[in-house]
Amino acid sequence: MGKRGRGKGRHNNSRKTQDDRTDLLEKIDMQNERLFAYYKAQNIVPEEEWDQFVDTLRQHLPTTFRVAGSRQTAQTLNSTIKDVHVPSLSNVVFEGQKIPPPVQIPWYPDGLAWHFNVPKKVLRKSPEFKKFHSFLVFETEVGNVSRQEAVSMLPPLFLEVEPHHRVMDMCAAPGSKTAQILEALHAQDTITSTSIPSGLLIANDSDNKRTHLLIHQSARLPSPALMVTNLDASNYPSIKIPGTSRNGTSRMETLQFDRILCDVPCSGDGTIRKNMGIWKSWLPMDGNGLHALQVRILQRAMNILKDNGRIVYSTCSLNPVENEAVIAEALLANPAFELVDVSDKLPELIRRPGLHTWRATGDRTVATTFATYEEFMASSLDDIVKSKMTEGHWPPKDAEKLNLDRCLRIYPHLQDTGGFFVAVLQKSAKPASASTNQTLERKRDAESLNDNDNNGPESKRLRLSELPSEDTPTPVDPVTSEVTKSSEASQAAPIAETTAQKTQPEKKVKDKSSGNGGFKENPYTFVSPDDPTLRSCIERLHINDDFPSSNVLVRNPEGDAARSLYLANDIVKTIIKHNDYERLRLTAAGTKVFAKQEAGKGTEAQFRVLGEGLPVVLPFVDPASIITGDVASLKTLVQTYYPLCSAFEEPFRSIVEARPTGSHIVRFPLGTHGEISLSHDILLPIWKSNVSLTLMIDKKAKSALSLRVFGADITTVGKEGQADASQKPVDEVVPMDQDIADDIKNYCK
Ligand SMILES: C[S@@+](CC[C@H](N)C(=O)[O-])C[C@H]1O[C@@H](n2cnc3c(N)ncnc32)[C@H](O)[C@@H]1O
User: Active site annotated at which positions (predicted)?
Assistant: First the structure.
């Protein structure tokens, strides 16, 4: 749950929030002469479209959502929306007006994303929309639906992630794009079981609190391939993994990524339709001030990308200083990279090309904008203002050669969305060509201009040469597999930083984490495959020998299986084994599969399989050990907390009575059972005590299951709170990257 609307009176509060929001929309003066003057000067839209562009900025943004989860799960839920909900919403008339049903976003693959624009009071009062709304609320809470601004769904689509890819999401929180990337890594999952992809996703954010939001979000799609780190992306340390040199000797190498997402912190003016405060606060300095960090993050991504790998750079800002200027500066410094022409991808997406010319300014009134840095420096503006700008804020001399038109600009009036910018960059494996040599010359020109003392203080210039480099692989001791001390010292910036971090961990950590305090997480430690607790889980649940028991970890330095057991895939295991977790500020790794269940007095505690862990474990479980259930038993388990075994009908009753106490798995097979029909098998973990059973999934998952199977929330909590939940606006259910004003206020500026 987000920070809003907890506890008593939540329902009234959330309604109040909605009303306040509508009032705000009406009251706020959606006028900002600086913003208009700035964007008119950029020529971002043709003169004849300007009024339509501004009118759209002033309109409320429609609700958009994406059906999440693996391919199979998503398709099944999408069919429910298409075949059950949309027909029931197609003839709704409210206060004499026909209300349009949700429609699919035309460019989103497989029709899995939806758009609807319905006044709040319709959601509250129309029985059909109320039901649909409840469905969205519950499915969002369990992660089958992701409420996400349409344009924010774009970057992961252009990233084209495959299950074997090593992927880095550099600025990941709160995690809506991380979830999309995870789904792509897990494309091979089935509706009941999770694959163990060979790939990797490192989701990173420099804000410690927000990494926890990220962990919460990604718990909706548990993955053994996920790691979460809490570092400054512009200075991300190199990750070491063992490799082999050309002559066959083993050595440590730097991990390089196939795909990197740089969804960088930005001024966020593309979100003005949701974040109305931007109307009042917008200044050109918002973007100017972020430019250098944005370049440094992109540069770092370029350094850790594999040959032929791909980077997607994106912002929810329309400002060329945060967009084309960043791309141009990074391309000039990295001739091996080029912008990818993606004009044939997502053909239904209406986009405009990136700009080759723009006019930056340091003048807060935006009375003047400047075509070039030289023009700006020759102006009568104050020296302090001048010192805050760099040449990189302006277009380079022959910007056309960089193909900046291959960038994508998404304007709100084109398809009723937020404003957005995306650039797709590819690293070629070829040496620099004649044209890239020219680029190098331009870079040298640019650097020599930077060296001119009249061009502002040295500290304000981006020193590209200071960025960490990945060139030197680190030899490894063939016996111990450890990095030798001397080679460690020879690594440029990342290692220097590590050494500093080791000697003064607290201080350094504080400096780097934007005031979030020291790093207090516990390390992950692998347990022995022969660990008695692990062996007991494996035996009791009839898990076969293919289960990767050497990839099971715990979260304490001693390696004690005290509370929870996690499962990681091979690459996550390798990274954990060969890198200092404090240096990586490793916040999460792998997925939790088993947890300790305290038993009653005098009974020994056992471990149980978790709801979120079951899909990962299931492919290894002996099918004969799985109990077959019936819909009546499922209903009893959903309705009651601890139903007695004797409350169930035969044959389920005798089967469970014959089972030992502890963790078991029940399969409810697909098919029609009286009035209830299951479109696929449902597998759930249960706990059997001496006389009763418990369904071991959390209450939100139970409510969503109930709503899906029985058409209503028949859980105890649901019966008490359904009215409350169904009234809760869907946009208050989960934080959305473009939806929380705080996100923009606190983190994107
Ligand atoms: C636009 S938001 C990212 C939204 C996210 N990709 C999503 O789709 O949910 C930018 C994020 O960058 C993070 N951030 C800011 N500076 C950073 C840095 N130097 N390194 C890494 N992350 C940073 C912020 O904490 C914020 O969460």
Answer: 316 (nucleophile)
Computed on alpha carbons and rounded to an integer, the radius of gyration of the chain in Å comes to 28
How much is the average pLDDT of 659-667?
94
Strand pairing report for 113-116 and 63-67: antiparallel
- In the DSSP assignment, the letter for residue 198 is S
Pocket of ligand 1, candidates 66, 169, 206: which has the most ligand atoms within 8 Å of its Cβ, to mutate? Answer: 206
Q: Is the CB–ligand 1 distance for residue 232 below 6 Å? A: yes
3 state SS of 423: strand
d(CA 344, CA 336): 23
Average pLDDT of the chain? 83
Q: Please tell me which residue, 329 or 221, carries the higher pLDDT value.
A: 329
Q: Is 322 in the pocket of ligand 1 (CB under 6 A)?
A: no
- Minimal-distance CA residue to ligand 1 atom 6: 172
> What was the pLDDT predicted at 23?
55
Q: What is the ipTM of this complex?
A: 1.00
In ligand 1, the atom with minimum distance to the C-alpha of 155 is 8
Tell me the C-alpha distance between 529 and 552, whole Å: 8
Kindly state the tokens that stand for 327.
């791309």
Binding residues for S-adenosyl-L-methionine: 171-177, 205, 232, 263
**DSSP code string of 130-159:** HHHHHHHHHHHHTTSEEE--GGGGHHHHHH
Per-residue model confidence (pLDDT) at position 424: 98
ω into 174 cis (within 30 of 0): yes
Give the distance (Å) from ligand 1 centre to CA of residue 514: 12
CA distance 680 to 424: 38
Nearest-5° angle of CA 510, CA 511, CA 514? Answer: 80
CB half-sphere exposure, 70, CA atoms < 13 A: 20
End-to-end CA, the chain: 25
Nearest CA to 237 out of 497, 499, 509, 586 is that of: 497
* Confidence check: pLDDT of 66 > 60: yes
Any ligand 1 atom below 6 A from CB of 236: no
Using a 6 Å cutoff on CB, does residue 295 contact ligand 1?
A: no
Q: Residue 588: is its pLDDT beyond 50?
A: yes
Contact in structure between 68 and 220 (CB atoms under 8 Å): yes
**Atom nearest to 177 CA in ligand 1:** 8
Q: Which residues form the catalytic set?
A: 316
Task: Give the pLDDT of residue 464.
Answer: 34
Q: What count of Cα atoms within 13 Å lies in the side-chain half-sphere of residue 694? A: 18
For the stretch 111-141, pLDDT in tens is 999 999 998 889 889 999 988 988 898 888 8
Confidence band for 629, pLDDT divided at 50, 70 and 90: very high
Annotated binding site: 171-177, 205, 232, 263
What is the helix (H) or strand (E) element at residue 7, kind and residue range?
A: none
pLDDT value of position 254: 96
Residue with tokens 């969305």: 417
Residue 667's DSSP bridge partners are 628, 683
How confident is the model over 490-516, as a mean pLDDT?
A: 30
